[in-house]
From TrEMBL:
The keyword Hydrolase applies. GO terms for molecular function: polygalacturonase activity. Pfam families: Glyco_hydro_28. InterPro entries: GH28_Enzymes (IPR051801), Glyco_hydro_28 (IPR000743), Pectin_lyas_fold (IPR012334), Pectin_lyase_fold/virulence (IPR011050). The keyword tRNA processing does not apply. Transmembrane segments: none annotated. Keywords: Glycosidase, Hydrolase. This is Exopolygalacturonase. Belongs to the glycosyl hydrolase 28 family. It comes from the Bacteria.
Amino acid sequence: MQRPVQMREHFPDGTPIGPWFYDDSVPTLEQLGRPYRVTDYGVLDDGRLHTAELQALIDRIAAEGGGVMVVPAGVYLTGSLFFKQGVSLYLGEGAMLRGSDDIADYPLLPTRIEGESCPYFAALINADGLDGFTICGPGAIDGNGLRAWRAFWLRRQWNPACTNKDEQRPRLVYLSHCSNVLVAGVRMQNSHFWTNHLYKCDHVRYLNCRVFSPAEPVKAPSTDAIDLDVCTDVLIKGCRFEVNDDAVVLKGGKGPWADTLPENGANERILIEDCSYGFCHGCLTFGSECVHSRNVLLRRVTVDASLNFLWFKMRPDTPQLYEYVAVENAKGTVDHFFNVSGWTQFFDAKGRADIPVSRAEQVALRRCDFTCGTCFDMPGGGRDYHFDGLTLEEVCVRASEGLELPGCVQNVTQKNVSVTRL
């Protein structure tokens, strides 16, 4: 059921939050169209790989005019699946679609990864150019990533400079060039690599999802919960994030000429609300692969144990602009409350000497209450990055260090701000 529109609500730059953002309705199984139960088409809970049967069923549903692929209770093993127009996915109570742990079951193809367009491996769930794609239901999508995590850390021991892509591993969900996407109610867990990656998508809703990957006993490296990569009009509501990397991440390209390349671009009108966070590296992270993000609103969230609450990664090899960002009504416990830092991982200026300094502008934090190790963690500034326009209102933080806002921030407004030492 669509909620009443609050006409006076706005994004940080004053743009009204449109009616689309107030529709948090989720269709019933019956409303998704003709159901196709996977167990009626040769897919069994038997520990065998059923990629071919599941892909044949997706193709059949599309050819017959559309409908919903229904996964009933049980565990069903598969490699990469490629959804088509008019085909939705429903995961029933007790259902688990589990990914293969063999990279050979994920084809190599042209894709988008880490801010670049290049050949890489397909995800477990793939959708490209679809309008109205839906994943919902109380069941789970499980990446089955333990084998890849162990291999990654073993490779790091052998070569500490190895990159994320050196250990070949798939993402869990990759959506590209899609519109009117709904992901609701499902549990997404144990991804080999990024959990959800959206590239050049618009009008996307993630509602009441649970995204999990472990930080112990084996860390699940780079298992970001939701990576938004050149996306517009996104609602993330009522979700629970607990992953061994960042929760919601704004991406969009990297490199010394990233802002001029047509495959890159801005994230705009992103609303994250009513979410909760367990352990993660950052609750809301800008970068490191991001050229422009604008009108991002995070509100009504609680944090149990994040390393960073709000994190701006400033790449010295990429022109970046993060602007009109607001946080409202947030509380919790973190290591770092407000982190702005240079980010040199995999630095490559490619010979360009005149890269513009990265910038953050017009950031506001209102009605925040946190206990943390460091309140303001902002090394550098000046030559490393520019920060212009910070508003702090009704902010109460108890911290061990970093109690003073550094002088590199220009045009600061403070009202009812209390930062006290633990």
